[in-house]
UniProtKB/TrEMBL annotation:
It comes from Segatella copri. Keywords: Transferase. It comes from the Bacteria. InterPro entries: Acyl_CoA_acyltransferase, GNAT_dom. GO terms for molecular function: acyltransferase activity, transferring groups other than amino-acyl groups. PROSITE patterns: GNAT (PS51186). This is GNAT family N-acetyltransferase. Residues 1-93 form the N-acetyltransferase domain. The keyword ATP-binding does not apply.
Length: 96
């Protein structure tokens, strides 16, 4: 699937531009709940198709959100080192 996604095709996707949970609330799994709610809303809306959620996960030597997104079933694409981000995606429709 990753190889197909990285090809020069266009897929209907919803990008999570910014997601943050205050540190004292991070152990409550609120970020994961928000991602699941976003996926549910994207699957159930009637006006446009959406196959993937995408994100540019912050990734530096001091902090990385990549592990959080991997725990939430996002897959890595090619990193963008000059921007300190790692593009990732999650399929929100079951494969047939």
């Amino acid at each position: 699937m990753r190889e197909q996604f990285e090809q020069k095709y266009t897929y209907p996707a919803l990008e999570i531009a910014y997601l943050a949970i205050e540190q004292k609330f991070q152990s409550l799994h609120l970020g994961s709940a928000l991602i699941e709610e976003i996926a549910l809303m994207a699957r159930n809306q009637r006006y446009a198709g959406c196959v993937f959620l995408t994100v540019r996960a912050w990734h530096t030597s001091d902090y990385s959100a990549v592990g959080f997104y991997e725990k939430n079933q996002f897959a890595k694409l090619t990193p963008v080192p000059q921007m300190d981000v790692w593009p990732m995606y999650k399929t929100i429709w079951p494969e047939e």
